[in-house]
Amino acid sequence: MTPVIQINPAHPEAQLIEQAGAIIRDGGLVAFPTETVYGLGADAMNEQAVARIFVAKGRPADNPLIVHVSHRRMLDQVAEGISEQAEALIERYWPGPLTLVLKRRPEVAASVSAGLPTVAVRMPNNAVALALIRAARTAIAAPSANRSGRPSPTTAAHVLADLDGRIEMILDGGATNIGIESTVLDVTSRVPMILRPGWVTEAQIAAITGAVARAASSEALQRSPGTRYRHYSPRARVVLVEHGSPAPLEAICKEHLKSATVGFIGHTPLAITNANFQAMILQADAAAYAGNIYAALREMDERGATVIIIEGISDAGAGAAVMDRLRRAASEIIGA
What we know:
Distance between the termini: 43 Å
Number of strands: 17
Low-confidence stretches: none
Mean pLDDT: 95
Order of helices and strands: EHEEHEHEHEEHEHEEEHEHEHEEHEHE
Number of helices: 11
Shape: globular
């Protein structure tokens, strides 16, 4: 069984961090908390170690990883040709939930970038994550610490449920703060391009860079993790009802109850009394959804739901990131 090590999220114990750092240096895998979701870390410069991430997760080899650094100087070890725009974004949003796609240095394991000439890099805003990178004395490649396609983990228990026996250690620093993955922004061209929406919004980026583009082509999207495959999905079938859809939530749930055990996740209380119906009511804002949606999907699986109906929220601001994840998790979208 993979050991789960309790660690102080604000002041991580040096001995525990050094133990985890030694595992990374030796080519092992350590799951650790960030402010977004838990990451599954390996030495970004070690091709064999990075290959183990793909095996542990069951991740397609053409899905790139994000490299995590602990300070600005470390960025120069993994990327080059960093523009003034990129520097301005780093100054404002690092450490934080913004990943920048840059030109990759050859020292970085090629599989980190799925063979592409670019590399996605961020500096996490989490004391445990930063201490681990420093202790490992190397940049750490880390996708979300879950089996590929499953909802991303926001607690150490989620990591253990997916990866027990597949990795050397899990650092338990409590629940993550934000709950969804970082924004991924390609800054290799004059106009920055959002490859994956996240907690740093398009408006916030544009306030620094001016014009911002959104990726639409598969060629652009392949430079980012989490954009070309179905992700974030529980075992149950997911039906997403878009914000503003005229479709009646209660009627949709009752129709599915004729043949399924239904879990409902949303912000509208429903007057349904049925032994095969369970509901989780959230506040109707991006922060509440981001902080709870992955855990809610996993909990509905555990409760035995065979269909999960999710009430969407507005795409405004950070809601765009939440809805991006829900659309990727959904088998059916109503009101699109």
